[in-house]
Amino acid sequence: MIFKGKVWKFGDDIDTDAIIPARYLNTSDPKELASHVMEDADKDFPGKVKPGDIIVAGKNFGCGSSREHAPIAIKAAGVQAVVAKSFARIFYRNAFNIGLPIFESPDSDIDEGDELEIDANAGVIKNITKSKEYKAKPIPAFMQELISAGGLIEWTKKKIKG
Amino acid sequence: MTITEKILAAHAGKKEVAPGELINAKVDFLLANDITAPIAISEFKKIGAKDVFDRERIALIPDHFAPQKDIKAAEQCKLLKDFSKEYQLSHYFEIGRMGIEHALLPEQGLVLPGDLIIGADSHTCTYGALGAFSTGVGSTDVAAAMATGECWFKVPESMKFIYFGKLNKWVTGKDLILYTIGDIGVDGALYRAMEFEGETIRALPMHARLTMCNMAIEAGGKSGIIVPDEITEAYVKERAKRPYKFYTSDKDATYVEIKEYDCSKIPPTVSCPHLPSNTKPAAELQDVRIDQVVIGSCTNGRLEDLREAAAVIKGRKVHPDVRMIVIPATQRIYLGAVKEGLVEIFIDAGAVVSTPTCGPCLGGHMGILAKGERALATTNRNFVGRMGHPESEVYLSNPAVAAASAVMGRIAVPDELGL
User: In this predicted complex, what is the ipTM?
Assistant: First the structure.
């Protein structure tokens, strides 16, 4: 899979309260959640993010709560993929389970507005704007199995029928 | 092997597991709340399973926006009730019988030593204090586990934290964990199991152990865990409704990193905005004026926490500029606080005492901050906007420091009140 899009840049330790503040968690409707995505990190973000864009962040992206509403809000806002130096572990699980593509790339120097092309199979992130390439950490075999099954629910369905 | 590896191996039907290994393991108990269960329920229905794996081993607890704060929250809570009825779940906790999940389940003896527990709530790591492997997961994980009784895990590396020396006056489990997070950072234990040990931990009462393990997630940890001992046995033996097992770590177990802390050097500690790792000694923050104090949450809403706060505020008054909100974490704790006269002490001081709820901890209800307001809370997170307006601020402390600060109208240590 190839993901090509424009970058929105965030810093380190972007927590789940910044991704989707708890005051909006009295619903799990993806569209409603998307209308507040990243609001407490950048209040204008829900208005300016476009389908196909890519979020790039620093270390420990998605720390804090276990709320699946966080990757759901990002996905429903049309964000194609998230690239971070590292991910908090529950966010990492949740992203795979719901089918939001995420890539760990510790050494990138990507800036806001850069155009990226991510080759998911090769694990290569191309920065078209800067004419550079970065490696994404390989995705464990089991996680690849989850992705090809279409997420944890589809994987579990198959297992039960097994 | 470490205690963590032993519990995971036993639940995966293996003799041994090693860090990094991906396993599928049997789950002893799982839980979700009114924010995470609605997604878990709808995903569970998509799987098409005929039944849940075990109706005795699932807890659905409306505690975050409960008692139901608005129509949308009421609709979410109703989903839990309806699902619990449909599948005849044994552990649905209606308002009046409920409590904050991570205080309630240990109190009720539903989570036990040696268990493997998952919860769709990040503070599920709390139960490591009992010698269980316990970790927060997402709603979809819980949905799959409700159907199969299993969950996938990457075996974490273990990181050991050794505490020695006598605790300073007013220093509690909360200060130890805040100090530790201040030392290693909010991703200092990312993906790792945090194993707490040492002479100070062995002498630490269960409520303080629960507080420490509760905040393992704030260092990025997958779990916090304490090898069970006689304090654990004394806590669980009266409560357990099924057999349990004590695991220990082998002498030659492998740890990716070992940290040692001399507790005589740890003061009452406060986390400043906007990360739990942004810690300072409470005594250095006396210029910080506050508008609200919250004593409660899954971190510090137990009866012992309320006693610590009441001992400080007894016979004193909450500062005129401050609203103080005390939230016993469960109905049993609330009743205990009534019987012991703690509620009277808080009300006499000018504080409000609320029904159990996570409420203000996550900016849900029952004490939300306006723009520019500042709170000192015994809760676990101080991210931007956590307790209300994105331009409000949250500081974190133990209950005694919170109570002293409520009296002074600014961050204070109890010594300032002549205690």
Answer: 0.94
pLDDT tens per residue, range B46-74: 999 999 999 999 999 999 999 999 999 99
| Same domain, residue pair B41 and B79 | yes
Q: Is the separation of the CB atoms in A136 and A124 below 8 Å?
A: yes
Which residues numbered 213-232 in B keep a CB inside 8 Å of some CB on A? 217, 220, 222
Are residues B235 and B116 part of one domain? yes
- Exposure string of B5-26, with b = 16+ CB inside 10 Å and e = fewer, is bbbbbbbbeeeebebeeebebe
> Do B47 and B18 have their domain in common?
yes
Looking at chain B, which residue has its C-alpha nearest residue A146?
B152
Question: CB-based contact (8 Å) between B148 and chain A?
Answer: yes
Q: Are residues B406 and B320 in the same domain?
A: yes
Number of domains in chain B: 2
E strand intervals along B49-198: 58-61, 91-92, 116-120, 133-136, 150-154, 158-164, 193-197
Q: CA A91, B30, B177: angle at the middle one, nearest 5?
A: 60
Domain boundary among B228, B243, B261: B261
Range of the domain at B210: 3-261
The model's pLDDT over B210-238, given as tens digits with 9 standing for 90+, comes to 999 999 999 999 999 999 999 999 999 99
CA distances from B390 to B321, B370, B373 (A): 21, 9, 10
pLDDT value of position A139: 85
Do B277 and B199 share a structural domain? Answer: no
What pTM, to 2 d.p., does this model score? 0.97
> Is residue B30 domain-shared with residue B156, that is, in the same domain?
yes
The answer, for B121 touching chain A at a CB cutoff of 8 Å, is: yes
